[in-house]
Design goal:
Elements: H1 2-15, H2 20-23, H3 27-35, H4 42-46, H5 56-72, H6 77-90, H7 93-119, H8 151-166, H9 173-186, H10 189-214
Helix pairs in contact: 5-6, 5-7, 7-9, 8-9, 8-10
């Protein structure tokens, strides 16, 4: 029986470019190897831009879509969207507040991740117009200078440990970003000056390095 199964698989394995030696490893080995997904390199993963967080309205809609569909008796996109828009406008400020607060925190976290992405040399892809085809992005040149950190990111890297230490155990990343945003907003111009100067120096060095880089490409 096992021989018949192996004989049936042989033409398929041949097309896939697998040798008869692979066949001899047994059906269990074949299944595990064929089903095993290819691993992505960490470098590629690091250069994937962070996904933009949903707005307060979209978060509310995700929570209430099912009840809207049930009430309307249809899941037609246009009808659900129209009814959702009306319901959101009628929602009191108190009921909107949790969604708006969560959206603000998520956006601050997204901004931090985007700054880190750009600092690592990532390039934010331009949004294509509807109906147009997006060209594949060329791989990043390792010799290209990396974008410098902003004054806020320089401050955050220095103060993150103390911010985290003051938060309760089991806190979320959004809470770190929310607290960081508060502290940065309250920071005096005199205390920000050090980070702004450092950021300006890094930017000047980056522009200088970019000019030298452009001469080599």
């Amino acid at each position: 029986m096992a021989l018949r199964r192996r004989s049936a698989l042989l033409p398929i394995l041949t097309v896939l470019g697998l040798s008869s030696a692979f066949l001899s490893t047994g059906l269990q080995g074949q299944e595990s190897l064929l089903a095993r997904p290819a691993k992505k390199s960490s470098a590629t993963a690091e250069l994937v831009p962070p996904k933009r967080p949903p707005s307060s309205y979209m978060s509310w809609l995700n929570d209430n879509r099912d009840s809207l569909v049930k009430k309307l008796g249809t899941n037609a996109v246009a009808e659900v969207a129209k009814a959702a828009g009306v319901a959101w406008k009628k929602l009191s400020a108190a009921k909107k507040k949790p969604y708006e607060k969560a959206a603000t925190a998520a956006r601050e976290e997204w901004k931090e991740k985007m700054e880190a992405f750009k600092s690592a040399g990532g390039v934010v892809p331009k949004r294509a117009a509807p109906g147009t085809r997006v060209a594949k992005k060329a791989p990043r040149d390792p010799n290209k200078p990396k974008r410098p950190l902003s004054s806020y990111m320089l401050w955050l890297n220095e103060n993150r440990p103390s911010i985290v230490k003051k938060l309760p155990a089991g806190h979320k990343a959004t809470e770190v970003m929310k607290e960081a945003g508060k502290q940065w907003g309250k920071l005096t111009a005199a205390k920000k000056k050090k980070y702004e100067k450092a950021a300006a120096d890094l930017k000047a060095k980056y522009l200088e390095d970019m000019e030298k880089y452009k001469e080599t490409v």
